[in-house]
Design a protein that fits this description.
The structure is a single chain. The chain is mostly helical. The chain has one domain (9-100). It is 60% helix and 0% strand. The structure holds iron/sulfur cluster (SF4).
């Protein structure tokens, strides 16, 4: 992964290592589900998100989180000790996983509804 490349051993396991890094930096106000979905399967999601907090990365997708999900937690994170910081990370990892699963389920449901309608139309037109 080009954007990390600061010598952390865990970066070797980053799922995004071989994907265009621009995907993780959408334009301001633009939401992209694809990189977030990729992050959910990444074995170093925790390390990546921790790095974003430790280095105060205000932009981009880190550990499957977008900037507006991290920003409100940053001041609190900085003030806290190690144990509490880990809790902030754990909670955010869990929340964003749930949110992503919900988004993906909604997208799938929409897609299925569209396919069903299309099929219905095809049957109607054939008859
Ligand atoms: S969590 Fe996402 S951004 Fe972070 S290393 Fe993994 S794939 Fe890359």
């Amino acid at each position: 992964m080009m954007r990390l490349s600061i010598g952390n051993e865990w970066e070797e396991s980053a799922v995004c290592k071989s994907v265009d890094p621009d995907l993780w930096f959408p334009d301001a106000g633009e939401f992209k589900q694809e990189p977030i979905t990729i992050c959910m399967d990444c074995p170093v999601r925790r390390e990546c998100l921790t790095l974003a907090f430790e280095e105060r990365h205000e932009h981009g997708i880190w550990g499957g989180t977008i900037a507006s999900e991290r920003a409100p937690l940053l001041a609190n994170y900085i003030r806290r000790g190690k144990h509490d910081r880990e809790r902030v990370i754990e909670n955010l990892l869990m929340q964003t996983r749930k949110k992503t699963e919900k988004n993906l389920a909604a997208r799938l449901a929409t897609k299925n509804r569209r396919l069903a309608k299309q099929k219905e139309l095809e049957i109607k037109n054939a008859g």
